[in-house]
Amino acid sequence: MPKTYLVNDKTPFDNDITHLVNDYHDLVNGKHHLVSDKPHLANDYHDLVDDKTPLVNDYTHLVNDKPDLANDSTPFGRVCRRRGRAAGLLYFEFTFSMIRPLLRLLGRPAALLAAAVLLTACPDKKPAATETEAPAETPLRPAPAFNADSAYAYIAKQVSFGPRVPNTPAHQRCGDWLVSEFRRRGLTVQEQPFTAMAFDGTMLRGRNIIARFAPQAARRVALFAHWDTRPFADKDKQQPNAALDGAIDGASGVAVLLEMARQLAAQPDSLTPKVGVDFILFDAEDYGYDSSTQADKANQLAGQGVESWCLGSQHWAKNLVPPGYKPEYGILLDMVGAKGARFSREQLSREKAGDVVGKIWNVAYRLGYSDYFIAQDIGSITDDHVFTNQAGVRTVDIIDHVPYGDEFFPPYHHTVQDNMSMVDRNTLKAVGQTVLTTLYQE
Ligand code: 1BN
Ligand code: ZN
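Above: the input record for the complex with zinc ion. Below: its predicted structure, written as tokens.
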């Protein structure tokens, strides 16, 4: 009776996707114990999807429809209707979701009992939700096609300047080129120069670059990325002091934003989004102190561990450009171009902008990018969104992150492997098309 696994967990059955994924992993493999809170199983789950296991594929849909369920914007029955071939588990989910509020009132023992009854009673029945017609989901408003070749070329261009480390000529030249590229596309560009002390006492000359598309629009969305490069490959076992290209960490986020700006600027007014879009490139994100690799050095900015990172966004958050800036939300892109990238739902993003996380992951699913935007929740990450959120711009961080095990970041992170050979156009397309399409739903 594999379906009873769902209620054998010590964790109360709820909307937590991690548990469901893990439960389902066991279900597929016919194991007789429930493993929960083991994020590495989510990875196995993706392997299973690659094996084209039909039930798992159905479950991919279920998981990715969950953000909608959480937002109450799509009745779960509609999901069941659309995914008509998903049988028992989906039916269980559907039925259980309908009675869950009642069970909450009754308490957990009643919930377990009711679930057990449901599971033993229902497996052979046709899912109820497939028997009635449900209204079709509103189609996505189409967005322009995001061109991954162009985004790739934008990465190559940035890398061609050399590492964009603050206080270097390569940094100065790349910054000038970024400003000119946005202006060339007709955006209104403002530069925000600043100086900030790095963890090692170096005074960094930085500049944030702010480019506005449709500056007259009252409703606005902010898109963020950082454009600087980390000064050393401190996580590289062989060459920890070498410079790195930062093709992924830095250049990929900027490249996706540049390509989005290019696409928006090429549209006639009738085909632009209803929101204005601000492209905000932060400087000096990556000159921080990493205690895992730099324990031999002193951190002059020691505090809670966040302060030495994200110097540009820290400056911007205290000196908003434009003053009083209040977009509806923000999306930060960091490390969004690597082969095999996976984007999980980061904790601060969920806490501050859970509805936006739901929108983005749902659009990704509907566009067929669920292999990139995975249904996995992870803890919080130090990144520029910490400070944009502090500034009152509720922001989602889309960042390549290992969703299991002890390691937080992918193997290329802060190593010399972060170069053009790591770039994958498919990942650029998945991210660029998803974010662009999300803007067009506003
Ligand atoms: C993310 C990408 N970060 C830098 N590049 C933030 C970070 C903070 C990375 C602490 C490692 C340790
Ligand atoms: Zn970095």
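Notes for the reader.
The domain at 148-440 is CATH 3.40.630.10 (Aminopeptidase).
The chain has two domains: 17-119, 148-440.
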